[in-house]
Amino acid sequence: MFRWFRKKEECIKCEQCQKCYEFSKPLKKDLDALNKILREQDTSFGKEISFLRQEMDIVKRNMVNALINLRNEIGEKLLEADK
Predict the structure, then answer these.
(1) Which one-letter DSSP state was computed for residue 59?
(2) What burial class does residue 78 get, using C-beta atoms within 10 Å of its C-beta: 0-12 exposed, 13-18 middle, 19+ buried?
(3) CB-based contacts of 8: which residues, under 8 Å, 6+ apart?
(4) What is the pLDDT of residues 26-71, one digit of tens each?
(5) Which of 21, 47, 57, 59 is the most buried if burial means most Cβ atoms within 10 Å?
């Protein structure tokens, strides 16, 4: 079990391996849980960014369409004024 913490040649034969292992088990579980949460956040964050980009594209299209409509209306009114 000591190899989990140290290389075999570095073991000082303190006979505390089981205590170290028991002490570190909850820490390793916490670390694994944190890594899992971070991976999930990366995925959800990526989805969120994708969603925001889609929304921005929709807003841009709507703005362009509104400007085109406004330009057409102004053009029609100018033509009417010239008559």
Answers:
(1) H
(2) exposed
(3) 2
(4) 777 777 787 787 777 767 777 777 788 888 888 888 888 888 888 8
(5) 21
Length of the chain measured in residues: 83
Q: Are 18 and 1 in contact (CB under 8 A)?
A: yes
- Cβ–Cβ < 8 Å for 11, 2: yes
Query: CA 20, 25, 28, 32: dihedral to nearest 10 degrees?
Result: 170
C-alpha–C-alpha distance, residues 56 and 53, integer Å = 5
Angle in degrees, CA 32, 34, 37, rounded to 5: 110
5 CB contacts (<8 Å, ≥6 apart)?
A: 17, 20, 21, 24
